[in-house]
Each structure stands twice: as C-alpha cells, then as structure tokens.
Design a protein that fits this description.
Blueprint (H helix, E strand, L loop, with lengths): L1 H13 L16 E2 H14 L7 H11 L3 H11 L2 E2 L6 E3 L5 E3 L2 H4 L5 E2 L3
Parallel strand pairs: 1-5
Antiparallel strand pairs: 2-3, 3-4
Helix pairs in contact: 3-4
Pfam families: UBD
Protein name: Ubiquitin domain-containing protein 1-like
InterPro entries: DC-UbP/UBTD2_N, DC-UbP/UBTD2_N_sf, UBTD1/2
Length: 115
Amino acid sequence: MGCVGSTQSRGEENTTKKLRKPKPWKHTQPITRTQLKQMRDEFWDTAPHYGGQKEIWDALRATAEADLTLAQAIVDSAGIIVSNADMTLCYDERGAKYELPKYVLSEPTNLIRDS
C-alpha cells in the first residue's frame, strides 16, 4: 500500500502547474461559433483513435469546457500531468501524450457571429 501513496503524491506534484487559457490566437480565416463547435466536436470524436485512454480524453474534454477552477479539479482528480499550463500538452500517469489544439481550449480573436 505504501507504493500507491507515493505514486499519488508524485502525481499531485506534477499537476500543480496552474492552468490558464491559451494566449489570444487567430484562426487562419474568421469562423463562426457553429464552425468552431463543429471543429471541436470532430477533434473530440477522433482524438481517442490516435492513442491514449478514452477516460483521459473524456476528462480533458470536460476540462476544456469548464472554468479554470473546475478544470484544475478535474485534472488533479484524473491524474493528468499538465506539461504546458495552457493545456496544449498533457500526459497521463502512464506517460501517454495528449496534444490539444488551441481551438478546443479557447475562442479565436476573429470569431464571427452566426448569421
């Protein structure tokens, strides 16, 4: 049992990086909120097929869609190791890599209203 405790505390040290939203960014062309949602849905639907655990992908999606306080709690409880504070690069406890595009984490500066 001592082993489990030491693994968990090590994981907590690794996830103490304070989460923040990505820096403002611009999409290659102005997009609507509907197009952004479609891009996000496509990413979350296909990402698990490129490796990593489905549970971690689900936790990352919940994190991306939550406010920062809740996001921090989700990351901590799922044992996700945040490599970049803006969450564009994360790892699970087994060392699998999870790369998140900025468009799933925040809105572009050139978002346009749906007509």
